[in-house]
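User: Sequence in, structure out. Go.
Assistant: Echoing your sequence, followed by the structure tokens.
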Amino acid sequence: MPYRDAKSLSISQNLDLVQVSKDNEKVVVFKIMDHGKYKYEQKKNKQKKTTHPLKEMSFRLRIDPHDMDIKINRIKGFLSKGSDVKITVTMRGRERATSQLAHQKLEAILAKLAELVQVQQKRSTKSSVFVTVRPLQEKKHDHRTDRNGKPEPDANRSHSVNVQESVKENSQKASANF
């Protein structure tokens, strides 16, 4: 279709004529579309695909307890935003001979984060111990409430109670008739 015909067709349909590709000088491909809607959808899809990068926090073997608590609070902040965190305990010099202490330090850190994380990967080298953790995905609880704001009883349990109460009422009515 010639360019002039395509342009007039796009104007008559209140759409835009967008150049899709230009392979060489002779072949140019255009598409009739709503360009604003296309850009909006591209931006929307890009926002959905954004992921949180892997954050890293490193500890030394001889870290002060207060400094360790501050770093653990930073890790909790990363986890609350949904990021995975790589925790590293590094050793220098003679510390390398006692790698058990690095493993103990890492276990102490993980113990403080136990209710928040799920361990993905653990590994160690001569000078470092690594662990990658991911935030726990909370289970969605079904908190149904009645109009007074009190939690509703379980549907199966309430049904069985109602059946038992109706049986008692029927037996009382039957005994009253005699």
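User: And one key feature?
Assistant: Helices lie at 3-12, 35-49, 65-80, 99-112, 155-177.
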